[in-house]
Amino acid sequence: MKSILAVLAAAAVANAHFTMQYIWNNGADGGHNNYIRIPPNNNPVTDVNSKDLTCNVNGLSGSNVQTTTIPAGATITFEWHQHDQRTGEDPISGGHKGPVQVYIAKAPSTAASFDGQGAVWTKIYSSGLLNPSSQQWATDVVNTNSGKHSVTIPSSLPAGEYLLRAEIIALHVAQSYPGAQFYIGCAQVKISGGGSANPPKISIPGTYKASDPGITVNIYNNLQSYTAPGGSVWSG
């Protein structure tokens, strides 16, 4: 029965892909596709070794993308949708169950010229399986909240330009690899104020492995716990 449910889920959501389309700065809507490195389509990344895992397809440069200024300690909200508009449908499709994560990386110079390669990323948010009894996932909360999830930017981060990387991992066909679907959006921001923290850093790609239990996993087998890839959240 579990395998049948998995097949039906995969078929039902095969075309229900999505992208990050808005960022909000302390409650202010930044506008459609502003400050975001826009991929060519809404397809997911499935190869954990691909550079597309960093900031999605064609996401290694943001030369044509504006950079928005945010204060240290700001609340940034990311908003996702299946299609290129706010249509009222499920923003990311109810069948796409999985974790929601946010990383940040400081650019050596400008965010627009930063490719995000190497050990530069710090995880500042992660939410996964919220209720094993009801099998409620972080993605369910995003759908309930009209495609939105928020993170507080640690106030101890130094001032400067950064990439903000939001990630949703859809696990509906993740029983074998490649199966997990990585939906990635990178925004370009300039942090004002801030402190002098030097947080722990990982590489994306580089840290994620096909064998990670948060990447290759059967979510239709009465899953009671979930460990997202990428290690622990740094709170600042």
Automatic annotation (TrEMBL):
Signal peptide boundaries: 1-16
InterPro entries reported in the protein's UniProt record: AA9 (IPR049892), AA9_LPMO (IPR005103)
Catalyzed reactions: [(1->4)-beta-D-glucosyl]n+m + reduced acceptor + O2 = 4-dehydro-beta-D-glucosyl-[(1->4)-beta-D-glucosyl]n-1 + [(1->4)-beta-D-glucosyl]m + acceptor + H2O
EC number, UniProt record: 1.14.99.56
Zinc keyword on record: no
Family statement drawn from the similarity comment of this UniProt entry: Belongs to the polysaccharide monooxygenase AA9 family.
UniProt name for this protein: lytic cellulose monooxygenase (C4-dehydrogenating)
Organism: Leucocoprinus leucothites
